[in-house]
Amino acid sequence: MPYWRLSGFYFFYFATLGALVPYWAPYLRSIGFEASEIGNLVALILATKIVAPNVWAWIADHSDRTMGVVRLATLLTVVCFTGVFFGTGFWWMALVMSAFSFFWNAALPQLEATTMNYLGSRPQHYGRVRLWGSIGFIVAVWSLGPVLDRYGEGTIRPVIMVLMVGIWLASMSIPNVSSPQKRGTGPGVLEQIFRRRDVVALLLACFLMQASHAPYYTFYTIYLTDNGYSNTVVGSLWALGVICEVVVFLAMPRLLGRVGLRAVLLSSFALAGLRWVLIAGFVDSPAVLAFAQTLHAVTYGAYHAAAIHMVHRMFTGRLQHRGQALYSSMSFGVGGALGSFYSGYAWTWLGPSQTYLLAAGLTVLAFGLAYRLIPSRI
Known about the structure:
The chain has 378 residues and is mostly helical. The protein has a single domain (3-175, 188-373), classed as Growth Hormone, Chain: A, CATH 1.20.1250. Helices cover 82% and strands 0% of the residues. It contains 14 helices and no strands. The longest helix has 30 residues, at 90-119. The chain is globular. The two termini are 26 Å apart.
């Protein structure tokens, strides 16, 4: 397995995310956009995850050249992102963000499928590769806080461009690997899979989980800076959460062996609800906010590793690409987009605290759905 080459891709991909997620919304506000407009623009980035992963998964499935698809997608991401340097109007930004994210969001699910194919009979070791993505996120989010405090929010544009070039270069170094051919991957199997309650329940629960994260991903930095925190402190809080995520990724092989996928998933939903309640009610307490960030270890790290593992078990053979694409589309795509859309308006009409409490309610629904319909044998 090309461990370091796969890890390099994860590093640059999530370093880009570490620049984009915490600091893109403040940049948009700095050039004059209101909360509802920011919510809509961020929703466009996530909405492309509904279509892009499935389109590119279909291409990868029929060509069996997954890394060729990834290389093309990452190159076109760089080309499209250059548009942010040529205009700042709402509709121009909407066009540019839709274009670059259509290709950017196509790359990761295909890389996830490639990683799982390289792991073969050892999927529980996924976290040891994926942790380098978390390290990339930490490096970006921690280092950029002081930079933006000193030079302003506009600095984020060239930084993201450089990181996107890094993703493309990393993709060029990873060899293609064919998906294992297994029985039960004929034309009607995908339909049969969707007749299973556990598959539908997993996708819906993941949708609710990501919708609950939207106020955090879209407005957490703005929320804290409006309450007197500097970008340096905010970056440190983001980094703390991802450091805890790294610890969980390292522990996942033992954790899954002792606890099981279903228990990990249910715990992540419950602790996500607690996390949003704490953020809603204790913004004036740095200690409580720091504790809430440690819960990111479970609400993202353990949750995502368990979900990826479940999808890998449910969708086999040539359906692996489409399985990972569906997971990405339903959770990060539909869930993230609708979440960003509602959070932008809720932020304006209800206020920040009520928006986070609304997010906590979504995790209660996710927990109930998974508890009732996902069996313990998964």
